[in-house]
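Aim 2 progress update. The chain analyzed this quarter is reproduced below.
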Amino acid sequence: MSKVGLYFGTFNPIHVGHLIIANYMVENSDLDEIWMVVTPHNPFKKKSSLLENHHRLELVYKATEDYVKIKPSNIEFNLPQPNYTVHTLAHISDKYPKKTFCLIMGEDNLKSFHKWKNYEVILENHHIYVYPRIAKGIVDHQFKNHSKIHKVDAPIVQISSTLIRNSIKEGKNIEPMLTKEVWQYIDEMNFYKK
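Predicted structure tokens:
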């Protein structure tokens, strides 16, 4: 059974911070590969700054094509909205019975994990790999020293997609924060400029 870490995100856009975390996780844990799961646009939310699903997936393809252990995934695109992680995990586990799926999350998400839909079911069936994030709040006592929650001492990356979008809008050079292929696609398509 290969062990797959699911790294969920809107990836709007995917940046080098995402790749640093994903690559560190797959190289420094018992995970065999990482799937970058692109979260679809919620049809009930008006979010003008969010690129269409296929564009964000294309950016993830472009960013990960040189990394054999990191793969893009559109598994959530055809699931009912709104999407809950617990449903995605059940679906993906049924679809790929020969793989074991784990969840990758930042420490900031672990702090609010007790508010997630059916979080107990997630913990019952899946391991969680947590990378450090600088964020306010505290981790709920039930998640400290939990046998299924593994802290991975990955580098703390303070790059955000919001910063990148705002910088592009302001005409600033953000090329070092993106892979060359991602930057070229964003630039050619005139994304985030207004």
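The chain has one domain: 2-158. The domain at 2-158 is CATH 3.40.50.620 (Rossmann fold). These observations will guide the mutagenesis experiments scheduled for the next reporting period.
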